[in-house]
Amino acid sequence: MQEPRFFRFIKSANALIFFGVGLLLLGVLGYTAYQIYRETLRDRTASGVVNIASPNQNTKTQMSLGTFASIEGTFYYLAPINVEQEYRQGYYDKATSSTRNYLILNTADKSAVRLVPRNDLLFVHVEKLGQKDKAGKLIKAEGLMYEVVKVDSNGDDRLTETDQKAIALSEVSGKNYTELLPNVDRVLGKVQIAPAKVMLIYTIGNQNFVAEIDVTARQVVSAQKLPAIE
After folding, report:
1. Could you point out which of 7, 25, 39, 96 has its C-alpha 20 to 30 Å from the C-alpha of 158?
2. Contact partners, residue 206, CB within 8 Å, separation at least 6
């Protein structure tokens, strides 16, 4: 006896539905496998980060010297001392890289000095300050200014630029490293008002400040609060 047309239609529709569901499941499984594959191979290297959580036996540290850059108008060249950390976090290997110190080379006598005695700080930024030409190009450096993180102020077991920073200065030779402003949350800008003087705008907590800094004397000439913005 021939099966009614209606039931044949129902069977065909069921077959198409099962086929469509199968394709959908295959697509979902394929997408999931791709995401897992991508997550597994993703680069987990974070720059400008120091992991200070309790080290374990799988933590590896490697130190290297970066590229030297000339300090304009002097015999000196500056290079970062970089540190790479590799460690296990959960199921994955992670890595961090950071600048922990600087080496200053005197090309006149081939001597070199480290900026600070130990490589336990995070240097976020360094800037050469001094005399500029009419186009704004530095022609003779008078000193070096640094933004440096010393402590994990936000308690996330890392040193990063989101932690509080100290503003420091040194001679172009790397000597007389001096911290001027501690506990700065954010640097909002710098204005060079003379070859050896800089105006620094910065934030501490919810207050904004402006300070005039003598680069060669490595001193804060004056500092004051800016008006509230609310």
Report:
1. 39
2. none
Question: Does residue 221 lie within any of the structural domains?
Answer: no
For residue 77, being part of any structural domain is answered with yes
Residue 16's pLDDT is what? Answer: 63
Residue 140: inside a domain:
yes
Say if residues 223 and 209 touch (Cβ distance below 8 Å).
Answer: yes
Inside any domain, residue 11:
yes
- Residue found under tokens 């930024």: 125
C-alpha 169/C-alpha 172 separation (Å) is 9
Q: What pLDDT is recorded for position 46? A: 78
- Tell me if 219 sits within 8 A of 201, measured CB to CB: no
Supply the pLDDT for residue 43.
45
CA dist list (Å): 180 to 9, 47, 72, 200, 222: 84, 26, 24, 11, 11
